[in-house]
Each structure stands twice: as C-alpha cells, then as structure tokens.
Design a protein that fits this description.
Helix content: 10-25%
Order of helices and strands: HEEEEEEEEEEHH
Number of helices: 3
Distance between the termini: 80 Å
Oligomer: single chain
Radius of gyration: 38 Å
Number of strands: 10
Shape: elongated
Amino acid sequence: MLRKMETAPLMFSICLCILLLSACSRTSIITRPGQAEYAPVEPIVPPPVVNNSGSIYAAAYARPWFEDIKARQVGDLLTVVLDEQTDANKSASTEITKDNTTDISAPTILGQDVTIGGDAISTSLDSANDFSGESDSSQSNKLQGSITVTVAQVLPNGNLVIQGEKWIAINQGDEYVRLRGIVRPVDIGPTNTILSTQVANAQITYKGKGATADSNAIGWLARFFISPLWPY
C-alpha cells in the first residue's frame, strides 16, 4: 500500500510532462471558421473508360499542348486581381415660396355698408409659405489586391462559377477577403488571372475581426439613436 502511494506522484508528474510536450508540439496555425459557400471545391474525378480501344488518349484527362494553362474545370485555381474603385456624388436643392392675399369687402344692404359701432365690416387674409432644402452626398471606395479562388461549377454555356476566401492575421485582429461570382473563360489572361471588374454577379467582402475592428465599430446604443427607429 505504501509503495502505491509513493508511485502516485511519479505517475502524475509523467502525465503532466506528456501534456506539456504535446501542447508545445502543436502548430500555431488557427483554423478559422469560414463559410461553406466560400470553401475550396475538390476536382471531379472523371469515371474510367469502360470500353478502351487500346488508345492512350483520354478526353477527360486531355490538356492542350499549345495553349496556356487556364482554369477550366471544377477545382482549378484562378487568381482574381482586385481593382475596385467607385466614386459617387449626389446633390439636391429645393426652394418653394408661396404667398396668398385675400380681401373681403364690407357687405352692403340696400346700398348701405353694414357697420358695427360706426365702422364698416371688412377683413383681409394673408398667408405665406416658404420651404428651402438642400442635400449633398459623396462616397468613394477603393479596393486593390489579389485573391486566388477555385472553380466551383462549370455552367452549360462554359462560364465558370468561382468562389474563395483569404484570411490575414495582423497583430490583434484578422482580416479576410471573400469573393464569389461568374467569369468567362475568354476573359482569363495567359497567366491564369482575371480582373475583378470582369466578374459577373461579383460578391466581394472585405472585413476584419478582432480588437482593431471592434474599436472602429459604433456602439449599439449610438446605433439606435441614428437609426430610423429613433423618432426625433
């Protein structure tokens, strides 16, 4: 019994060393929970040829010798060069002025003015309305960089549905770029790149997470006061 009590601390020390060593052996790469619609798509493996005539040529695996290697099948990679820039300006000015004047003369009975206390009854109505409004709005956005995505689907007309995301960890926060859209194979350059302005139905997202992004976000109470729900 005494020997078992003496070996217990030794076994505990051994287990603690194993846990510490296993923790140190882990990599520092953090797997971030991305969205499923931006996940990479694996290539589709073509079925084997059933009736082989003896030829070594297989159309499913064929690659042209005298053409540039470009994305054309599900799972292929494509680099999208982000070159987005938008400038919008809008101004409006309205001014409305309206003046009305109405005179009501004194009534008469048998040619004589109706008076009260010797004064003829007469009145006049004046009204004036004035409205002036002016608004000015300006917005500018710019996004440059690149992201490599995968081909998720080949449409019947040959166009390619692409999707992908890129995460960058900087100090106390993470930044990510997500892209999804449709491209034409003829727009893909010799280096297997395409401009983001040539992506149809483009859905480009550039956001950040962490302390830096939280410090730039407006609080929920301040957001309520500038929302349409605030009556004043």
